[in-house]
Amino acid sequence: MPEPLSISFHGAARTVTGSRHLLRLGQRRWLFDCGLYQGHRDEADRVNRTFRFDPGELEAVVVSHAHLDHTGNLPTLVAQGFAGPIHATAATADLCRVMLADSAFLMERDHEKVNRRARRQGRPQREPLYRPADVEVTLGRLATHAYHEEFEPVPGVRARYHDAGHILGSALTTFDLESGGRRFRLGMTGDLGRPHRPILRDPEVHAGVDALVLESTYGDRLHPPERETGARLQEVMLRTLGRGGRVLVPSFAVGRTQELVATLHGLIDAGALPDVPMFVDSPLARLATGVFRRHPECFDAETLRSFEHGAGDDGWGAPFGFPRLRYVSSPEESRALNERRDPCVIIAASGMCEGGRILHHLQHGLGDPRNTVLFVGYQAEGTLGRRLKDGAEEVNIWGEPVRRRAEIAALDGFSAHADQGEIVGWVSRLDPAPRRIFLVHGDLGPGEALAAKLRESVGAEVVIPEPGQEFELWN
Ligand SMILES: [Zn+2]
After folding, report:
1. Ligand 1 centroid vs 65 CA: distance in angstroms?
2. What would the pLDDT profile of 49-102 be if each residue is shown by its tens digit?
3. Which of 61, 151, 210, 253 holds its CA 20 to 30 A away from the CA of 399?
């Protein structure tokens, strides 16, 4: 008789945030991803502090990639007693150093504001979810692995990473185990990327698995073709710069900014854009770009070739630097950008305009009809980015009304997640086909649409687990 083998879904079940999946083989327990649940402050705080298992009993955590919705709650897990190693690819570990430190910094700053208000109103003070010291301890636990290298997160379980093509360092993970004379292979996609994207290699396909845990963010959608995205980006740039305006791009600092810079670099090399100054105005983006440059083992052939071109003003080198591009660090230099009168491109965080330097660029630039605000990422309900994207004519920035006269444009083609067709195409290349597929990291609508497609094309049993639900895997 094999020992019991089970998986339970403690996050990103019927939602897209807070990935945490608990695996058990007999008495051994390990966690796959430990993401931050992002939502309204009070609810998020409660969800992130509550583990429905004892962190002290886990032997290891295996992490798929550095996005905070997959790693951002690791410091809480460590603070609550988890004492084992955290496995990751080398690039993921380096991105975690930058992103978790930034996350702790933002939490402390956010709490100072909230606590100041609470003091004035005589309400109790609160503690941030974690502090920089917790991040330090967490980072000391990272154990890094190359793609395809075998490692043993718990005795008797062999794991291996394959390239997921989602962000730098992102990985598909397989777990191979044997118990009572039976073998089992479990595949976990983490977030599944897409073919033909800038910088990264296409997603790999690992060997066939008995069961697959599959993301479903865009399970009901098809992305526009990549060629269209480059052409539309060029159109927006030419139109705005041609009327003497500036293009303001709210962008996530890690991943999206580097892809956008690489795409702009390609357009400039092809003579498709005028020679105007471009700025990446985000300290986190600058740090993250440094991590990208240290991990050429993650690049596709085209990106590796482009390094043979010359370096930019800042010595960053292609594809992340070119002569007209400047990475802005100091707040003074950031503010000075508002004094410029010439057409230019400014890429700044945060991606949904919920904070960061993009806010002062919007405050100065929204009123000018020559300018364009260009969205290149998802804008969640309730964010300033969403209100602008939906066509609001007046918005509040730092409590002040700002009238919008600038053009609003959006490009959907930069998504880092496979769409429905790409997911089904990827699953159908697994040989042998999985008998059972668990859909996670997606709302119920996209999950059900994808489940129907997969049942039809792969013939597997497809399950959309409820939060906390546990499944015995030998069955
Ligand atoms: Zn991700």
Report:
1. 7
2. 999 999 999 999 999 999 999 999 999 999 999 999 999 999 999 999 999 999
3. 253
Give the model's pLDDT for residue 215: 97
Which residues fall within 8 angstroms of residue 390, CB to CB, at 6 or more apart? none
What is the arithmetic mean of pLDDT over 435-450?
Answer: 96
Contact 441, 20 (CB under 8 A): no
**What spacing in Å lies between the alpha carbon of 344 and ligand 1's midpoint?**
30
3-state class (DSSP) for residue 52:
coil
Token pair for 340? 């410029």
Residues surrounding ion ligand 1 at CB below 5 Å? 67, 191
Each residue's pLDDT tens digit, 192-216? 999 988 889 999 999 999 999 999 9
CA-based nearest residue to 285, from 245, 315, 326, 317: 326
Write the DSSP symbol of residue 464: -
- CB atoms < 10 A from the CB of 152, how many? 11
In the numeric block, which tokens belong to residue 30? 């390990």
What single-letter DSSP state applies at residue 318?
Answer: T
CA 383 to ligand 1 centroid distance, Å: 20
- Cα 336 to ligand 1 centre (Å): 33
Give the span between the Cα atoms of 205 and 211, in whole angstroms: 14
Strands 372-375 and 400-403: unpaired
Ligand 1 midpoint to CA 470 (Å):
24
The pTM is what?
A: 0.91
Rg (CA), the chain: 23
- Give 433 Cα–ligand 1 centroid separation in angstroms: 25
Mean pLDDT, the chain, whole residue set:
93
CA quadruple 397, 402, 403, 408: dihedral positive or negative?
Answer: negative
Report how far ligand 1's centroid is from the alpha carbon of 459 (Å).
27
* Structural domains for the chain: 5-221+416-472 (3.60.15.10), 226-410 (3.40.50.10890)
